[in-house]
Amino acid sequence: MARIRTIKPEFWTDEDMSELSEPACLLAIGLLNYADDEGYFNANPKLIRAAVFPIREPSLSIPVLIQELSNCGYIAMYSTSDNKHFGHICNFGRHQVVNKPRPSKIKCLELVPYDYSSTTVELPLGMDQGSGIREMEETPHSAREEKLAAPVDNFPAVESAVINAPVTGGKFSMFEDWLPDEDLQRRAAVWGIILKTPPEKTEIAEFVTYWIGEGKFFTQSQWEQKLARSVSQRRARPAASSATANRQRDITVMPVPDKEIPDGWRG
Known about the structure:
By secondary structure, the chain is an alpha+beta fold. The protein folds into two domains: 1-171, no CATH class; 174-249, Helicase, Ruva Protein, domain 3, CATH 1.10.8. The chain has helices at residues 15-18, 22-34, 45-52, 62-71, 92-95, 156-164, 184-190, 201-214, 220-236, 242-249; strands at 40-42, 75-79, 85-89, 112-113, 172-173, 217-218. A four-stranded antiparallel beta sheet has the order 1-3-2-4, covered by helices on one side. Strand 2 and strand 3 form a beta hairpin. The protein is elongated and about 100 Å long.
């Protein structure tokens, strides 16, 4: 349900907010009404759209707007083990006075920083909404990082997939230049998948080629889990015997016909 919030006059002169697109700026305000009394919110795009844009059509999709707000540090995005996504308005408590606040249920979940792409390890946090000043202050489940200088347009393949995809919470279809996070080997260990070495280029290429034809939609984290599991299973297969390998190498060689007549056919 919507909640009464306040907007400081400094919000409109904030230099960081002025760099956002108009629909992203409008969403930033709407999230104040949508978030709970500690600034946390369910990041399901359908729920956000129903709460913030119930009777209008935003010019950009909700996932793209959410990424834009996270890149500038206005919000921090998280995911859970069951692939649900949640957000937190940074420094919410410093700029909102809530009468009889209710404890956040989302805050108690096991939240993990959400990765948008292979070039985004962690989302920038710590934006001081209203004044434009970033303070060295940590918020629950997060640690402050410097603002990302790269605009959202630096990820055309991912963004295009998200825009063309149904509103599914940051999911996108596989594309030719997709790459996993450089830290995939460590993250795979957290998922219970042991990779002695990082995936090789050929393994990634085969994975990408297969899934491009499938047309499925998953988040970056889900694609990486599938890649780690695929590589692990493939490496666990027993190596082919030398005889089998030789037969596989000779499949292009024309066999020599056997001209001898079996004894049973002789008169």
